[in-house]
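Could you please consider the sequence and fold appended to this message?
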Amino acid sequence: MAVESKAFITGAAGLSLTADEQAFLTAERPWGLILFARNCDTRTQIIDLVSRFRDLVGRPDAPVLIDQEGGRVQRLKPPGWRRYPTGRAFGEVYDEDPAAGRRAAFLGARLIAEDLAALGITVDCLPVADVPAPDGHDVIGDRAYSTDPAIVAEMARAAAEGLMAGGVLPVVKHVPGHGRARADSHLALPVVETDRGMLEAIDFAPFKALADLPLAMTAHVVYTAIDPHAPATTSHRVIDEVIRGSIGFDGCLMGDDVSMKALAGSIDDRTRALFAAGCDLALHCNGDFAEMRAVAAATPLLAGEAARRASAALARLTPAEPFDRDEALAVVERLTAVAGAVA
């Protein structure tokens, strides 16, 4: 008999699960666990943490997520793991040679997948499909592949395929687009006043091209042309008309971190609001135990269309395919050296 899970992804406070966290996981059975740098020290420690989580929730295939993009957003860091280039570094290869750029993005993601799969991590919150605007906040910045939506779509596709070829699921973010936001949604609520036609042509376009991917993460951004009152994460109109509608995404949709300051109200109110808007999964990242309990209390069992989409996403996981590791390492090492990073 399948073990039921609740429709949320939780964080944890440290390198191992506390007694309270273990009891919480057993009782509340979140769909997944997301790891941050505070949870990652050594390979053995991470493998043990991942295994213990899966034992406690009673599902050997329970997803474990991480943000391993490269550049500023990389939870596994040197010296234990190699440093990866920014999205923009791969985009600059594309600017010189599109085929080489796509290949580089694929190989970079394929190497990341190799790192993650060895630890039991099965989902990476990559690729970033946001299109940064000239006056947009740097929270996206060089995480984006390009300012051209067509190039963003091609490079994000290549990165997603590199992850999946390595046995790791991608999460495309931040749908329907964070690049025009002039505030960091970790700290404040961005409000975008661009007309819908421009949004559809630029910001939403990469996500439409990537609508077949298994998982996506919302943007905590208000688009006044669509819903002037609520950010995408808690806007039924944005999710229904844009994400499920004009973009055509039918995969599993998770809200961005419910503890971010862009969202208003209590943690449990935010959680209920994102489910009411049409998100399939809530995501809570900071490891604060009181907040974890509030999210769990406000989260339903994973059922209906949300369960179908979540199961369909996990069904996309396949064993890692062989690849030219030497070629991949050469690409990544060259780009990190050009960027002035220590490989």
